[in-house]
Amino acid sequence: MVAQVEESRAATSRxxxxxxxxxxxxxxxxxxxxxxxxxPVYWMMISTFQPSKYILHFPPPLLPQELxxxxxxxxxxEHPIARWLRNSFLxxxxxxxxxxxLSVLGAFALSNLRWPGRNLFGLFLxxxxxxxxxxxxxxxxxxxxxxxxxxxxxxxxxxxxxFILPICIWILKxxxxxxxxxVLDASVVDGCTELGALWRIxxxxxxxxxxAVAVVAFFFAWNEYLYAGIMLSSGDFMPASVGLSTLxxxxxxPVEQYMAAGLVFSVLPVVFYLAMQRYIVSGLTAxxxxx
Amino acid sequence: MNExxxxxxxxxxxxxxxxxxxxxxxxxxxxxxxxxxxxxxxxLLIVYPIVQGIYGSFTRIELASSAATTWVGWDNxxxxxxxxxxxxxxxVTLLFTALVIVVALTVGLLTALLFNRPFxxxxxxxxxxxxxWAIPEVPVxxxxxxILSPQFGVVNILARMLPGVTQNPQWLQVPELAMGWMxxxxxxxxxxxxxxxxxxxxxxxxxxxxxxxxxxxxxxxxLFWHVTLxxxxxxxxxxxxxxxxxxxxxxxxIFLMTGGGPSGTTETIVIRIFNTAFRFYDYSxxxxxxxxxxxxxxxxxxxxxxxxxxxxxxSA
Lengths: 291, 316
Hints:
The complex is a heterodimer. Chain A contains 14 helices and no strands. By secondary structure, chain A is mainly alpha-helical. Chains A and B meet through helix 1, helix 2, helix 5, helix 6 and helix 7 of A and helix 2, helix 4, helix 5, helix 6 and helix 7 of B.
């Protein structure tokens, strides 16, 4: 055994050429794969930051020829994109607040308390998260129509929060699970109520998890298209996801403005999602896989 | 530990035919009080509409007039099962879902294996890998509409390199091409998530296993087959089900790019439900389609839950 290990070690160090080829191949593969994956994003940038004369040409140049920054001002003056973004922001903030309040309570019950029905509660949340949104769209639309709740930003936030709340609870549950049970027990023995322990011990220890929930809820509502398009059909309340989908490239909107709109809308979610990816993944897999 | 003692003590006392002790009521009051608002909230906005939808599928719904809904029994379902268009939708849905599972998971697995190896700039490369996942669906649609433009789309440069292609293809007008792009775009958007989950599973495989196998003279392929694959097997199984759920739900990309066309070749059931309700205003038939979709997704969700339960039992 020992002799074999030494032999194989010697073998690897004896072949530096082989190692060089191997690592070159690795870097080459990584480069090619990354290029394919990122190309559509790269192309959005290229199409945003160049004057259209380069991009409205076939075949288009693959490398940027000239930088151009007026498209953002044109975009904001020619389309009500500021209002769309404001509407998206309002929907997202309301969804976020509602989700944070409810998910703290739900996650505490699911993670730190022991009670009959706890598993059932967890399963209930899991199933509601897995149903396609469109299945509930028609009955909800009919309900909202009857209750006169169409074309209202808070009404849409109520729906968005209902869809994302289960995932938020599962994310927070994973975070609350890390609070040692002994610490909680000790605080309860010391005369602290369970809710007091949640407020004074669990929450301060779970700040990153709370931030993750805020991010997930905010950007779910920010990105949501289907319900926003049906429930907010009036132009005044149109959020950016719906507004952007009405833009027509070339025919009605110059390409650099069209792509700039996509870029403006994507910057925030990309930054925050990348920062919070671990938590989001663990929530989407309901903690089955530690992300 | 503490809990078991408590539970035994409680069981001992409550067996003495006394009313449930105060402590029991106090203990369970809080969790129920915390869970109740959530159950009510989800019940009102998710469960109640589902029940309404099931009820509605047995009626004729007139939204425009104030006429009361009339009970029509199984009419909507009879129509659905005898409708060739419905079976076409089912075929398209199965094809789309299966293709996205295969493509997204294969790419996810390969990129995870690649990005699991140590190399410089790995954090940057991983950040780039996550980009498609972090960009919202509507901008993704905008990017690809532009890339696939028959007039100026950059993808035509590649297409023109193929022998026999002298004109830019109408990417979204040819049925096979449209379906292919729907699968590719959905997979591009979805695979980073699977890749990230598989990466986490790969890193949980103990290094000693690899070392031991190498000492025994295992080749690279054998290492993958006998160490890596068993190590991530249960994660992959779980991801197949999750991918089925996510791709079955896919709405925005297909709806905004093809709307289900050309001539229904990319019309999955979620698109069909939407079109039936909000293009043809046939709400009752749409709710019947919705119930069909609900049954399917509930079945898949149950598979996921059973797998979860099995996993937790194994790890316990």
